[in-house]
Amino acid sequence: MSDSPRNARPVTAVIVGAGHRAILYASYAEKHPDELRIVGVVDPDPVRLQRAGERFGVAPGHLFASLEVFTSAGRIADAVINGTMDAQHVPTTLPLLAAGYDVLLEKPIGVAEDEVMELHRAALAHGRKVIICHVLRYAPFYAEIRKRVLAGEIGDIIAMHTSENVSYHHMAMGFVRGKWNRKERQSSMLMAKCCHDLDLIVWMKGGIDPVRVSSFGGRQHFRPEMAPEGAGTRCLLDCSIEETCAYSAKKHYIEQGLWGFYVWSNQHLGIKPSPEEQLEQLRTDNPYGRCVWRCDNDVVDHQAVIVQFADGATATHNMIGGTAKPCRSMHLVGTKGEIQGVMEEGEFVIRKPDPRKGHVYAEERVATNVAGDMHGGGDLRLVADFVRMMRGQGMSISSAALEISIYGHLIGFAADRSMERGEQVLLSKL
Questions:
Q1: H or E element that contains 358
Q2: Class of domain 137-222+297-426
Q3: How far apart are CA 51 and CA 19, in angstroms?
Q4: Beta partners for 361?
């Protein structure tokens, strides 16, 4: 590695797990080659390994088919972008820390509380930084709300409500037909989809610990007994209502072109089957061609979470899967006013009591930039902040370092236990 000052050259990084998310984060190097350079790829899939290496101009000797081979090769970069699947996050990050790498780690941190805490201890022991991809902290909508809260514009937060409406086609793709449809394989629905929102709740409270959690929810809609008359096992095989079904795989993944980077293997690296091949896959062995009421899913399709903080403040979060329109909303109520808005609309409102005669409240509308990505423009802003940290330039208020990201995860794990056991769960202090 170069002996030149860290801030005088691009930060070098290796992709571990060349899936859609890691490639998206790594694309920052294509836009800002003076700041970030991808110098290695680790992936067991030979096609992904080769395609990702070609895309970023990685030398053949820095393409690794396994993590073991990579970590035994000596330290070849400053950092790692870990885009593996949820259940692999901690098992893959532990050896990376031991090998001397700082890590940009896709969320969620892990799939269980004990492994998250193990990772925290390992990062401290090795003196390495782990930054969690809580990209919504970097979305201009949420970043500006946090600035207003820090400035004291609404006083001390007394109550919060957040919600995430997961669109029907996203729900079907990810959590009924797709990779996150069974908790035993990856994360729970709440942790896979809403660890962002739980993190935002903790972030807005600014260091005041959550102390207790209750939660309710279940799988109410996507079950075999809810299948409409005429539904088959696969949309293009034996279904008589495919043409009129809102969940038609043909409609979503071929006609509308939704979620192709998950449905078609390695599309995010430029590989896409022909229309005929797509139809044949959905008809036969592609899991995304299954009827949504006859899959092997067991994660919830709706869940409500209630949190109490050490100062007595409360927060609620609702995750609703299967809505017509996707959106995330936030409503903060403080001792001096309130903030309310919907991320996708790119605007929030600050309201304060108005003592003037004839006035009930004063209102300020704040517009923010809404980029074209599903995370409100936060994805590459996160990477930019990670690069600044690696160059020793500090990080922004949005920093999602491991040690300050844990409480949001602890809320999620506790919420799932509360829902399953029907009891309130107390949180331990870190």
A1: none
A2: alpha beta
A3: 11
A4: 353
Distances (CA, A) of 358 to 342, 346, 354, 355, 361: 29, 30, 9, 9, 9
Third-level CATH fold of 6-132: Rossmann fold (3.40.50)
CATH 3.40.50.720 placement within the chain: 6-132
* Per-residue three-class SS string for 103-122: EEECCCCCCCHHHHHHHHHH
User: DSSP state, 293?
Assistant: T
Task: Note if the bond before 108 is cis, omega within 30 degrees.
Answer: yes
Please provide the DSSP assignment of 86-107 as one string: GGGHHHHHHHHHHTT-EEEEPS
Count of beta carbons in the 10 Å neighbourhood of residue 42: 27
The tokens for 345 are 């609309």
The model carries a pTM of 0.93
Residues 6+ apart with CB under 8 A from 377: 138, 139, 140, 369, 370, 371
| Tens digits of residue pLDDT in 282-329 | 999 999 999 999 999 999 999 999 999 999 999 999 999 999 999 999
